[in-house]
Amino acid sequence: MCGIVAYVGERTAYPIIVKGLQRLEYRGYDSAGLALVNDGVHVYKCKGKVKDLEEHAKGKSISGSIGIGHTRWATHGVPSDNNAHPHVSENGKFIVVHNGIIENYAHLKKELINRGYTFQSETDTEVLANLIENIYIEEKVDAEIAVRSALTKVIGAYGLVVTCTDEDDQLIAARKGSPLVIGVGEKEYFLASDATPIVEYTDQVIYMNDEEVAVIKKDKLTLKSIHNDAKKPKIQKISLSIEEIDKGNYDHFMLKEIYEQPLSIEDTFRGRISMDHSKIFLGGIIDVLPRLSEAKRIIIVACGTSWHAGLVGEYLFEEFARTPVEVEYASEFRYRNPVINKDDVIIAISQSGETADTLAAIKMAKEQGALIIGICNVAGASIPRETDAGVYTHAGPEIGVASTKAFSSQVTVLTMMAMLLGKTKGELSPNEYQHLIKQMTEVPDKIKTILQSEAEIKTIAETYKDANNALYLGRGYLFPVALEGALKLKEISYIHAEGYPAAEMKHGPIALIDENMPVFVIATKDKSYEKIVSNIQEVKARNGKVIAIVTEGDDVIKKMADHVIEVPDCHEAVAPLLTVIPLQFISYHIAVMRGCNVDQPRNLAKSVTVE
Q1: What phi and psi, each to the nearest 5 degrees, are found at residue 12?
Q2: Is the peptide bond between 233 and the residue preceding it cis, with omega within 30 degrees of 0?
Q3: Phi and psi (nearest 5°) for 46?
Q4: Is 72 in contact with 30 (CB distance < 8 Å)?
Q5: Which of 231, 383, 240 is nearest to 306 (CA)?
Q6: Residue range 309-331: average pLDDT?
Q7: Mean pLDDT of the residues in the chain
Q8: CA distance 80 to 222
Q9: Max CA-CA distance within the chain?
């Protein structure tokens, strides 16, 4: 993995591919490469960034109207020039870029070595290139058949684009478990791992499905299954704009996306809350609402930040709808042989809609007869197509690897779902229901107030930028916020940080607290307020440095804490949406001050589309 861009048409392919790879840099990568069809195939690749690839290609042949490009995030083999994509088969017949993992590559490689093939890299992708070529030569078939035949022999995930030197007027693309989007133009086609490299040229796209193969020439596209069944391409219009994937006047995408949260939250509930605040309408789940109401249990599956959003959802569903909830790491859930009943509801949360573990988890649960509901930000992604029903978050594209507005939009959707379910089941009175809706609609303006505190929060970040460790504490709805705050600090500043329920501090972490330990405490006024005040006193008694996020006007904690960040008063159920903002700012500014790559933190990919 991590990003694919390809082009076939009448324009020069090189600038389209390079710009597309730059658009995909947000996904994270360690090397880059491309191949251009021009009186033969010219391959340029290297360890490093896209700018290093451009430097590598300077002065060399970069003409041609067909090309494939790739940014790689190492799975098989360390980052190196040899392991970078594209990979060329031994006899030079096939050039391949590939996202995903070929799980049986070692077995296939051994077979190919026995047939006389040698290998230049450590990758599974080179094995695939040679497998295709071997079938092509041995069976004397055309390139498309060789690709389809090879794919019936591989186990694992792939999103790939192939060019054949003998049939150099076309590209062959295929997908299983790793996304590929085809942009449709006038006598031209664009391919990419997501729509961001395509939007500049066309708003017409085809989202490839699993086990589909596309044969693409500049004036023709044929879509079929790997078993040669004809498929009808479904062309969709995307609404993504260049402005949405540009930093504008912000220094980093993450900062831009922090500031976009009032709008992204409003966009998420816009049209779903009535003007008089009397009701919530979620069209994506209206048909399954009776089954959701009768569910004996809700299981939320997600990874990373989405898992933290799911933890907030657990509190919300149990509080408002009195439905038992379990929150599972998708990566563990899928392998645990979990007990799933037909009256369970699975809620799968993923920003990209392509998270491999979450996809595998919902497929497994679907086989057991459970109702599957998706919460996703990307229309046309795999999870919305695999689920029985769902709700889009409408956060807009999130380019920064560290999630910000996707998290708050996911929590917004979960809050609305829990409120609607509570009202439907009769667990929320009409007055409570309308009060909560009003509280939700006030969140964007309250966040705007918090955003005005950036300079103050930046000063606090300056104080703790050299810390080696940090502790984040919260209770109830705010415990998941503590986890999310710690994750943000780890992700982009590389400071070790842990989130805990505040009362659990006494069960181990309190041993770590001394005068060098910053302790971030989310302590807005709710039913746990008096308890968390006691927890702060315990930290101060051990000389810990307390940075507290409190309700505006709080004068109790202000006397104890070393630093206080105020947020507007709100219902405790929407407090996560407010209190996460200062923690995002803290992480962002510490990372910038430490010279870290905020938008592309080391070793991380935006969408984890392989295990």
Answers
A1: -75, 125
A2: no
A3: -165, 155
A4: yes
A5: 383
A6: 95
A7: 91
A8: 35
A9: 81
End-to-end CA distance of the chain: 11
C-beta of residue 379 within 8 angstroms of C-beta of residue 331: no
Catalytic residues: 2, 606
Please check the confidence at residue 374 and state whether its pLDDT lies above 90: yes
Separation between Cα atoms, residue 457 and residue 247, nearest integer Å: 22
Distances (CA, A) of 198 to 23, 190, 237, 435: 9, 6, 12, 43
3-state SS of 544-608?
A: CEEEEEEECCCCCHHHCCCEEEEECCCCCCCHHHHHHHHHHHHHHHHHHHCCCCCCCCCCCCCCC
- Picking from 351, 511, 268, 316, the residue whose alpha carbon sits closest to that of residue 427 is 316
∠ Cα 148 154 158 (to 5°): 80
Buried b (16+ CB within 10 A) or exposed e, 65-77: bbbbbbbbbbbbb
| Element (DSSP H or E) covering residue 191 | strand 189-192
For residues 439 and 575, is the Cβ–Cβ distance under 8 A? no
Measured at the CA of 34, the angle between CA 32 and CA 37, to 5 degrees, comes to: 175
Please give the structure tokens belonging to residue 108. Answer: 């296939």
Grade residue 528 by pLDDT with cuts at 50, 70 and 90: confident
pLDDT tens digits, one per residue of 266-302: 999 999 999 888 899 999 999 999 999 999 999 999 9
- Both structure tokens of 604: 């991380």
* Helix spans in 58-194 (H): 105-114, 124-139, 143-151
What 510-516 contacts at long range (C-beta under 8 Å, 24+ apart), as own/partner pairs, is: 510/538, 510/539, 510/542, 512/469, 512/471, 513/471, 513/539, 513/542, 513/543, 513/544, 514/542, 514/543, 514/544, 515/543, 515/544, 515/545, 516/467, 516/468, 516/469, 516/545
What one-letter code names the amino acid at 362?
A: I
564-587 CB burial, b ≥16 within 10 A, e <16: bbbbbebebbbbbbbbbbbbbbbb
Residue 396 confidence (pLDDT) above 90: no
Tell me how far CA of residue 47 lies from CA of 33, 79, 125, in angstroms: 9, 6, 16
Name residues whose C-beta falls within 8 Å of residue 451's C-beta, 6 or more positions apart in sequence: 258, 259, 262, 581
Q: How many CB atoms lie within 10 A of CB 602?
A: 11
- What is the crossing angle of helices 430-451 and 575-593, to 10°? 20
Q: Given this model, what pLDDT does residue 241 score?
A: 64
Contact status, residue 412 vs residue 440, Cβ threshold 8 Å:
yes
The dihedrals phi and psi of 106, each to the nearest 5 degrees, come to -65, -40
Residue 1 banded pLDDT, cuts 50, 70, 90 = low
Backbone angles phi, psi at 68, to 5 degrees: -130, 145
Question: Any residues with CB less than 8 A from the CB of 404 and at least 6 apart, and which?
Answer: 254, 257, 258, 261, 398, 584
- Token pair for 110: 């051994």
